[in-house]
Amino acid sequence: MKRVLSKAFSLPHFRGVFKPAQMGFTSHVAVLTLAASILSLHCTAEDTKQAKPTSGSQNHTLVNTTNTPHPAPEKSDTVLRHAVFFSFNENSSDADVQKVVRAFAALPKKIDAIIDFQSGINNSPEGLDDGFTHCFLLTFKDEEGRETYLPHPAHREFGATLRPHLNDVFVIDYWGEMPDPAPKRQLKHAVFFKFKEDADPAAIKQVEEAFAALPSKIDSIKSFEWGTNNSPETHDDDFTHCFMVTFDSEEGREKYLPHPDHLQFVEVLKPVLDKVRVLDFWEDGFRKNRKKK
Q: From CA 47, how far away is CA 3, in angstroms rounded?
């Protein structure tokens, strides 16, 4: 602030224009008034410049203690999530499936762009998984990381291992935030929405805000993030929204599902919902080689 004051009062914009010897009393008053105005403008501009923008994304990873919803995080504060789900052919053996899982879990060692890797087997009690059984959540620092990953030779090699056994694949990418601190064990509850074609955007926004408000109302939610799909691939099945809820136990999930605030949210959702898909998994099921940002 001292720098701003000295800068404002030095009147560099008018130095050499007004000469004190040539000014009467009225002119001096005018200059002083002008100086005060410039000081006010400088202080306002400097305060605005120094104030850090408040981002709701900072509240994504822990329970919000107010009723303020968690907005989708701003890009500058986020990491890029790559959520991948597989169902396998019926004639693929358990050994075949495990070979695929191990090959996927080995990718963080081979592709530096992967900064975090979580995976597990679906255990949702809701029956809304559409037959998908295996869940993987990869994290990139940014879009450039994803652009490195997708055509990477190691990823293509993994695809060759996967294809003979793959029945279906579902992929959603969204901007999220790396939780810090995070629960030691994370039960991920991944929820995906496809809205009706004629759904009012205002009603969709109401759904977003209502879901994002749940962490402030249900204390068994230990971490939360959400975003809209931005995957360049074509495996999203027309789902547009992902909400990733984290519990630290199955008891936490059991408390959440029948909770009055969750049921109230469902009533907000129903009028605009076309389809929902839900998969849950313990993130430490096959977790390998976690990398720090």
A: 12
- 146-182 pLDDT tens trace: 999 999 999 999 999 999 999 999 999 999 987 665 6
Are residues 259 and 151 both part of a single domain? yes
Q: What is the DSSP string of the chain?
A: -HHHHHHHHT-GGGTTTS-GGG--HHHHHHHHHHHHHHHHHHHHHHHHHHSPPP-GGGGTTS--SSS---PPPPGGG-EEEEEEEEEE-TTS-HHHHHHHHHHHHTHHHH-TTEEEEEEEE---SSS-STT--EEEEEEESSHHHHHHHTT-HHHHHHHHHHGGGEEEEEEEEEEE---SS--SS-EEEEEEEEE-TT--HHHHHHHHHHHHTGGGT-TT--EEEEEE---SSS-STT--EEEEEEESSHHHHHHHTT-HHHHHHHHHHGGGEEEEEEEEEETBSS-------
Residues 80 and 8 in one domain: no
pLDDT digits (tens, 9 = 90+) for 70-95: 565 555 579 999 999 999 999 999 99
Answer yes or no: is 288 within a domain: no
In contact, 207 and 268? CB cutoff 8 Å: yes
User: Does the residue 90 lie in any domain?
Assistant: yes
CA distance 111 to 108: 5
> Domain check: are 18 and 100 in the same one?
no
The answer to pTM > 0.85 is no
Q: Which domain holds residue 28?
A: 2-50
Which residue from 146, 143, 120, 142 is spatially nearest to 132, judged by alpha carbons?
120
